[in-house]
Amino acid sequence: DTAVSQTPKYLVTQMGNDKSIKCEQNLGHDTMYWYKQDSKKFLKIMFSYNNKELIINETVPNRFSPKSPDKAHLNLHINSLELGDSAVYFCASSRQDSNQPQHFGDGTRLSIL
Amino acid sequence: QKEVEQNSGPLSVPEGAIASLNCTYSDRGSQSFFWYRQYSGKSPELIMSIYSNGDKEDGRFTAQLNKASQYVSLLIRDSQPSDSATYLCAVNTGGSYIPTFGRGTSLIVHP
């Protein structure tokens, strides 16, 4: 009965490849997010998405794109992977209310060879 | 630009002591404040939320908010080695549901 689940947990791939990370939440939340956490542990927002709008952090390269088939899923596609993309990627969800905390998935550790 | 500042630490305290973690924020319109705990290799988990000035207690944890001085703190009483983790402060401004996270403070509780 995991609340926010993301797959895969580990992803090791070559530079230049295209990969996807999947995320699903069963909390009934209407907003989902993708975060990148680098080696210094800084949690950086990449995208926020609900059924009305997609908010993109302008510093995120356009090689990264979110895809949401429905409000319970927000997948992350990454094209032409680069060494600097190595990090842990967290999916999260919340109700669209500034008083509501976020619930995080277990993370996907992406390593680029 | 909205900023949330935390001392990266590590903050080292002996077992049984009070650990005090601090966070300052730049946006005076901030209305919601959260503390997350993140163990090494794990995801952040919510431990406290606070919305109004003053103290909020939950077990060994107390969150303190002072909007006039723009800081929020987390006190952990009777610290245990299992409290050793990184503590992330997150702040939501009014009207925005996207929080700004601080860089986190590493806490080490030694026996």
Key features?
A: 113 residues, mainly beta, seven-stranded mixed beta sheet, four-stranded antiparallel beta sheet, B: 111 residues, five-stranded antiparallel beta sheet, 11 strands, 56% strand
Detailed description of the structure:
The complex is a heterodimer of chains A (113) and B (111). By secondary structure, chain A is mostly beta strands. Chain A has strands spanning 4-7, 10-13, 19-25, 31-37, 43-50, 54-56, 64-70, 73-78, 87-94, 103-104, 108-112. In chain A, the strands form two sheets. In chain A, strands 2, 4, 5, 6, 9, 10 and 11 form a seven-stranded mixed β-sheet that branches. Chain B has 111 residues and is mostly beta strands. Helices cover 0% and strands 56% of the residues of chain B. Chain B contains no helices and eleven strands. Chain B has strands at residues 4-5, 11-14, 19-25, 30-38, 45-50, 54-58, 61-66, 71-76, 85-93, 100-101, 105-110. In chain B, the strands form two sheets. In chain B, strands 2, 4, 5, 9, 10 and 11 form a six-stranded mixed β-sheet that branches. The interface between A and B is medium-sized, with 24 and 25 residues.
